[in-house]
Specification:
The protein is mainly alpha-helical and 77 residues long. The chain is 62% helix and 0% strand. The longest helix has 24 residues.
Length: 77
């Protein structure tokens, strides 16, 4: 896919760009991620904080403890 973009950049013909964009859209709709690469920036809107690593580990430990306590409680019933 990148090679196609490199080929059309020097000419900058709108028809070529439209064809590549259409191919990308079709590949994305079909789930063909060999052509429609996932762009890392797509999920940037889901990030609401940037905690330090220690805080992330604390969150994971807390959540794991809650899950395990919930399971323990369900076995006691």
């Amino acid at each position: 896919m990148a090679n196609q973009y490199l080929k059309i950049l020097p000419r900058q013909r709108f028809e070529d760009v439209k064809a590549v964009a259409a191919e990308y859209a079709a590949a994305k709709a079909a789930g063909n991620f060999d052509i429609a690469a996932v762009i890392a920036g797509e999920a940037v809107g889901l990030i609401h904080d940037i905690p330090p690593a220690a805080e992330i580990v604390d969150r994971i430990v807390t959540e794991a403890g809650q899950i395990l306590n919930g399971r323990r409680n369900s076995f006691a019933a």
